[in-house]
Amino acid sequence: MSESTIAVAPAAAAEPEPRRHRPLVLLLQGAWRQGRTKIGLAIVILLVGLAVIGPLFAPYAPDKTANIPGQAFAPPYAPPTAGARLGTDTLGRDVLSRFLWGGRSVLALSALATGIGLVLGVAVGLLAAHSRSILDDVLMRGMDVLLAFPQIVLALVAVATVGPKLWLLVMVVGITTAPRIARVTRGAAIQVVERDFVHAAEALGESRTKIIFGELLPNITSPLMVEASLRLTFSIALIAGLSFLGFGLQPPAADWGLMINENRQGLEINPWAVVAPVSAIGLLTIGVSLVGDGLSRASIGIERGGIDR
Amino acid sequence: MSAPAWDGFVVEVEDLRIEVESQGVDIVDEVSFQIEAGEVLGLVGESGSGKTTVGLALMGHCRRGARITGGKIRIEGRNILELSTAELRALRGRTVSYVPQDPGSALNPALRIEKQLDEVLAAHRYGNSGEERRVRLLEMMDEVLLPPEGRFLKRYPHQLSGGQQQRVGLAMAFACRPRVIVLDEPTTGLDVTTQAHVLDTVRNLCEIHRVAALYVSHDLAVVASLARRVAVMYAGRIVEAGPRSVLFQSSAHPYARRLIEAIPVISGRHALAGIPGNAPRPGRRPSGCFFAPRCTYAREECTREFPPVVRIADLHEVRCYRHADVLAEAAHGRPAAEELTALRADDRLLAVDHVSARYGERQVVHDVSLAIESQECLALVGESGSGKTTLARCIGGLHRAYTGEVRLRGELLPAGARARDRETRRQIQYIFQSPYSSLNPRKTVGQIVGQPLRLFFDFGRREIDARVAVALERVQLVASVADRYPDQLSGGERQRVAIARALVSEPTVLICDEVTSALDVSVQAAIVELLGGLQREMGLAMLFVTHNLALVRSIAHRVAVMSEGRIVELGPVDRVLGQPQDEYTQRLLADTPTLEAVPV
After folding, report:
1. SS3 state of residue B7
2. B469 touches chain A (CB under 8 A)
3. Which of A57, A290, B152, B211 is the most exposed place for a label (fewest CB within 10 A)?
4. Whether the predicted pLDDT of A272 surpasses 50
């Protein structure tokens, strides 16, 4: 038994700080503490909810014309009335129903495209950063070539050549998003590669895949999450833009981008047919970028470290 | 323009208190000291003790998130805490100037030296014309022993060596003939020879120009060579202050005593002793004396209230209830160093034959041969750029561009860890210089220490956890650190984790690359103590790379001195440190700051 003196010099081992959450959890907590993240998330959840469960509440199927009491056929661009709460569109279909149906495609396509861009870009960026060889140059110059063209031009060329296929749309947006993510990934990873824990893993003979995904990737999640949300914003705008130009979903399908195009002539008669999808797309991009901004502020806060943690 | 001579203390700090803004807990409190013109006061403490915070406060500045909330700082009688922003700006650089720790990051990489120096003068309207400033500029260069010529002035910071950069930093600080100068560990990261020269320059400049200087450092040996008076800081309080001879001969505070015992001594008469535990951070400080939990003298009264200032002798003040007992104990009865008996195993466990290595086009190691016997510790000593780390990296499989042979038990090893087999990689383990960079911040300590086990053995999860716990215990860490992240640990604890990772796979050869140079002196002592013990206990062959000759005696059997890629001297520690043959070794020995050189 130890002596009962008041204070004995302990062994070198003092009880360390209490256990803590994983760094990723800390980032998310930090982001959540910002008002902008909450607002952004609220907007995104609202619109995603609208797109996912909205069709259940839609009064009409998206391709059916509206039933307006006292009229045999619903007129085009009818202002909001009893049978059509937001009026009718260019073909006399219910704007509200088409709006509720039309969010799914934009959301699904842009999320999918960003996902593809993220996977490709992260893979290329990490490989380039880790290789420290000619491969780095080959990969990154390849990315630079893709970067030289505006995203929408590449998308238009592809769609104009092959035709307006949805898988093509997703692939093209994904592939043109990848170089931007690859640059950010490489930039962040190149600093991590030089740290000694990577050398330590190499000296132990850890496999390249393990080093890339076990040592490098976890250390660049903060900039990646910020970049991913920024890219999602751009993808939403791009997909909606391509739909507007007629390269996305084809009529009579309901889609926010397409709706804007179809109804823009009637803007003065029933503005809802354009204003509803435009504001939805606008709000969605604002919401996503607010979340991204919150993440980015939180990651800066964590890097500064200490005082408010 | 010379300021009228101020008689009395140039700097008077009274009851200074600095708080963390958001929490109201103090970083520094009850700090008082004075400095006269021409005097250097050494402010010593471990990292986190608040010494830099005090240094910055002399310029009326605080780091982000901190605020001066009490006390007075008088510079030539004027309380600078009452000055307006504009007055403070005029004060900084002109009356009080600052030399930062890392000159490499303090100089603007995009501006030539000339421009940066001129900017300081121009900003404070020193000299009326470009001509006049130019004259002063050249004079400054001369004062800090840099060539006062146009060609040198046209250089950019990255074209200068670390020592030259720090001299430029000094020139900028002394440019406007300040009354007070704050030096914040300006020689950390410099070679001993460069350090000795920079210290000389600082000493001369302060003396000639009657500047009151505050020299902030964690290294008592460095402070001892420069400052006549020393104040020791612990957890935001000054716990002892006095003339250096008094402090080093008969310090009255247990902490100061432990700090002194942690300093390696070239003559090797004493064993190194680290201070167990960590200094408490702001907000987590205990009641009573902050050092009590780590103090062997602590009694019940020590846990009640922080001890008051006691004046023992003229200028000698201490804050400890038990100072009389501390003083009574035989003056520095340091335990004698354990004799490291020379080993006569005569088996060349690891042999390096005619190894030459290059970085790109530049050859950094020239035809080096050495051998390490089993259970032997060989120290490899040299200044930065001597090629010692490159040689270590060749052996450790981290540097592939070399010619010559590295053999383990007579078996030729391929260059590069990937080309070596699993068993070889297991047997040779490497510990890196900085524990801040060698541990993945996104992994828990358990994952980090368990990594070699997963790679070298086919253990189950439970077996890995058990062995990680054993390894952590071996480096004197509690098992519960296994699920903490590296950034929750102090520098010393992190380095212990790195040691645990290296030893968990039971290697036969351990390469330690400057493992203490990123740590405080007190922590360094503990780490060296630990490594030496483990080396003997586990029978490891160890290559201990260091720039600090004073450390060698505490740990190594033999020492190899390296200069410009060649080994200039190799032999038993006693012989090399006792009767150095090579001129370079002699110079290194002379430049290494130790307490033995302290003029009494």
Report:
1. coil
2. no
3. A57
4. yes
